[in-house]
Design brief:
The chain has 228 residues and is mainly β. Helices cover 8% and strands 37% of the residues. It has 2 domains: 6-45 and 82-88, OB fold (Dihydrolipoamide Acetyltransferase, E2P) (Beta Barrel), CATH 2.40.50.100; 109-221, Nucleic acid-binding proteins (OB fold (Dihydrolipoamide Acetyltransferase, E2P), Beta Barrel). A hairpin with a 3-residue loop joins β8 and β9 (122-130). Residues 43-64 are annotated as: Disordered.
């Protein structure tokens, strides 16, 4: 795993046998997952010598270390040697004396967004990431029914393509009006990249238009993004 990258909620960061969870990270079934949207950082353990801890801090006879105490100390030392992975909402501190520049989505940018609500004609989304930059503010966008797919546009149904809570990779096609960016998923690489079933379980894609719940075995329709 790279020491610095962008993570979205629920993204796998690595096994618990290689990393310790830090802020913004939770443990689930021996794996570490991101709890928030932000920048991933890995902090290496500080090099501390065990000899300093074994020396006596005051006068008096040295204490005899039993085998059980020594084993516990070694196990704690082994656990502390793991690097700590954390996810921070701050994507970089501004330079000294300078204000951080806000990134605005532009036409042609690929963005990550979360579906907030759907109507028969469009899906309303909150834009979270533009390129490799986590946005300070959530910008609102819409994916109109005619911009979901490049073919068979007259057969597209919004409720079969997106659901509230889905994480979508989309492209900015227009700056839109004063309140919304216009986005499109009319490409194989664009569409839903993370989805949760009606039962509340994380699903995995099985085709270009279907996600499956591994717990219940039920499938749900989505406009699925092709993996890179």
């Amino acid at each position: 795993m790279a020491t610095t990258s962008i993570a979205i909620p629920g993204q796998l960061l690595g096994p618990a046998s290689r990393y310790k969870p830090g802020p913004g990270v939770h443990l689930y079934e021996k794996n570490l997952y991101s709890s928030v949207l932000g920048t991933v950082s890995v902090a290496q353990p500080s090099s501390t010598t065990s000899s300093s801890s074994s020396t006596s801090s005051g006068p008096g006879p040295a204490k005899r270390i039993s085998r059980i105490t020594q084993t516990l100390a070694q196990s704690k030392a082994g656990a502390s040697e793991l690097p700590t992975v954390s996810v921070s909402r701050d994507v970089g501190a501004p330079g000294a004396g300078r204000k951080k520049r806000e990134v605005l989505p532009q036409v042609g940018n690929v963005v990550l967004c979360r579906v907030t609500r759907i109507t028969p004609r469009q899906a309303v989304v909150a834009i979270l990431v533009c390129g490799d930059t986590v946005l300070e503010a959530e910008w609102q966008g819409v994916i109109r029914v005619q911009d979901v797919r490049a073919t068979e546009k007259d057969r597209v149904k919004i409720y079969e393509s997106f659901r509230p809570g889905d994480i979508v990779r989309a492209s900015v096609i227009s700056l839109g009006d004063q309140s919304n960016y216009y986005l499109a998923t009319a490409s194989n690489e664009l569409g839903v990249i993370m989805a949760v079933s009606e039962a509340g379980n994380a699903m995995y894609p099985v085709s270009w238009k279907e996600y499956k719940d591994p717990e219940t075995g039920l499938s749900e329709s989505r406009k699925v993004a092709k993996p890179f």
